[in-house]
Amino acid sequence: MTTKQPERARVVVTGMGVCTPIGIGVETFWSNALAGKNGVGEIRRFDHSDLRTHVAGEIHDFEPSEFIQADEIPRMGRGSQLAVAAARQALEQAGLVGHALQRYLPQRRAVSFGTTMGEPEILDEVVQSIVADGLENLPYEQLFTLPSFRMPNHVARVFDFRGRNFQIPTACTAGNYAIGYGADLLRHNHADVVVAGGSDAFSRIAFVGFNKLLATASECVRPFDREREGMIVSEGSGALVLERLEDAQARGATILAEFLDYGLGCDAHKMTIPHPEARGGNVAMRQALQKSGVEPQEVDYVCAHGTGTRENDKVETKIIKEVLGKRAYDIKVSSIKSMVGHAMGGASAIEAIACAQSLRQGRLAPTINYRTPDPDCDLDYVPNQAQDVEIGVAASNAYAFGGNCSTIVLRKHGNR
Question: How many angstroms separate the CA atoms of 308 and 294, rounded?
Answer without folding.
Answer: 28
